[in-house]
Amino acid sequence: MSRKRASAVVLSLTATLLTLFMVLGLHRQSRGVDRNLNTNDGSILGWLWTPSVPASNRPPPSSVRVLTYHNDTARTGQNLEEKILALGNVNSKQFGKVGFLPVDGLVDAEPLYISALTVSGHSHDVVFVATEHDSVYAFDANTLTQLWHVTVLGAGESPSDNRNCDQVIPETGITSTPVIAFNEGRGVMYLVAMSKDNNGNYFQRLHALDITNGADISGSPATIEATFPTLKGKTTFDPKQYKERAALLFLDGVIYTSWASHCDLGDYTGWVIGYNAATLRQVNVLNVTPNGSEGAIWMSGSGPAADSVGNIFLLDANGTFDRTLNSSGFPINGDFGNGFLKMSVSGAKLSVTDYFNMRDTGAESNRDEDLGSGGALLLPDFKDASGKTWQLAVGAGKDARIYVVNRNSMGKFHANNNAIYQEVDHQLTGGIYAAPAYFKDTVYFGAVDDSLKAFSIRNARLVPDPASKTSVSFSYPGTTPSISANGTSNAIAWTVEARGSDAGVLHAYDACNLGDELYNSNQAGGRDAFADNKFVTPMIANGRVFVGTLTGVIVFGLLH
Fold it and tell me: 4 CB contacts (<8 Å, ≥6 apart)?
């Protein structure tokens, strides 16, 4: 064989191998690799553009990552890699406030975390903080020094005013928890920021930031604009009527945004809008009340949940529900207000593929007693007494009922009864304005004017009587727990209590017995005191607990 022909053969084989690798990579993307963002296998985004990184520069396999709200796309709220904080050392003598991360506005979003991240040539355990002043910060989680700070405001802009609503005051900027797509030492943070200019124009923008320096990546930001067909023509997304309250979801290379109103003011409907993570190009739009009104998505800051095959679940707030159903049992005009919704993508179209609405859904909406005040939680698979496997989700709202749905047949709407997998009544004293958490066959709910309660799962059903509960009763807005554990041991339930006048209390309980309080931040006098923000979720990573406040993030850990 001639040298020229041999070279051609080598080139041909090389091209074939490259094509094969690309096909395998794209196949992996299409299968939805790494839906659970707190795993260590990287993200789909890495297959889209991340170059390889030398092994010596990669984080160790044990790296702790909190990349999305409540730790994963099931929204369990559990970090099972906590090897420092334990039942024996979380007490007021050994544990307490170790520092404060000052920022320029309210912290409504849950902080995010990546260990062993290279920033400016050095490895850091990094905590990320977003503010209502439209700023994002990165801090070293150990030394508490600021690594970088950026504003995402456009030239001549300021954060939005509160739009005559007291839910987020005095300004609205970054309200929802961002999401980070991370792979092989590189990552991008996605967030939605609201702002206004001097002419009274309002903007909602999706930003994609390099997590090593806070800079917008190419193509960022994207302005949120959308229309959706209605029976009368179309409805148009009006940026001033909405805030992004629910956490962002990263799923199969798409960033999903979902939209809440400012209180219940003005003309609004329920939007879910998806953007390609690599290009920030809009790829799908869904309005869940297109021919009605209201139906906002806020879930007290929790995010839409996603299962392993790409279905999305959320709780929708008070709004129009068409009681007249088509032959498939769906609302005839496509209005799903006040429902437990399942959404899926077929082609480029996002649509509601199943749902549950309670029999008195219209009356509840009229009383503003909606399901959408709480968050949805996807449970792992459970087997019943006969050995049948069930895929379940739970949620609760202002009516103080716990709804357990079969994710493969949710129950739809029936005027005379709730055709649902399980309903637990009379166990929550007040309504839910928070997200639940899950750990080791147990679901945790913190209702208004009620204890934090642990409900065991047995034979694929919630046991109605709580297995344990706290002695403390949590006033409005109740409480959203987070769980830390080392595998199945040393499990601690962390939660924040609002005491009024902006005073907050961090509580730590034995997650297997909520009657055993390990610590609270009032036990050491004023040493650990902090100002509470309304809908905050504690984040736990590498021996530290991070809690958003009115002016920054208070950091708790072992005292030296």
Answer: none
Nearest to 368 by CA among 298, 418, 313: 298
pLDDT in tens, 338-356: 999 999 999 889 999 999 9
Q: For residues 372 and 336, give the distance between their C-alpha atoms in angstroms, rounded to a whole number.
A: 12
According to DSSP H, which parts of 474-541 are helical? none
For residue 159, cis peptide bond before it (omega within 30 degrees of 0): no
pLDDT at 186: 81
The answer on pLDDT for 499 being more than 90 is no
Give the C-alpha distances (Å, rounded to integers) separating 471 from 140, 452, 456, 507, 545. 36, 8, 18, 11, 22
Measure Cα distances from 212 to 140, 209, 448, 551 in Å.
12, 9, 40, 23
d(CA 446, CA 452): 4
Residues whose CB falls within 8 Å of the CB of residue 38, separated by 6 or more in sequence, listed in order: 65, 66, 67, 68, 71, 72, 79
Distance separating alpha carbons of residues 225 and 97, to the nearest angstrom: 43
Rounded Cα–Cα distance for residues 247 and 304 (Å) = 7
Burial class (CB in 10 A: 0-12, 13-18, 19+), 496: buried
Is residue 33 very low, low, confident or very high in pLDDT (cuts 50, 70, 90)? very low
What is the spatial distance between Cα 399 and Cα 211, in angstroms, rounded to a whole number? 40
Q: How far apart are CA 520 and CA 166, in angstroms?
A: 29
Q: What is the chain's mean pLDDT, rounded?
A: 90
282 in Cβ contact with 211 (< 8 Å) = no
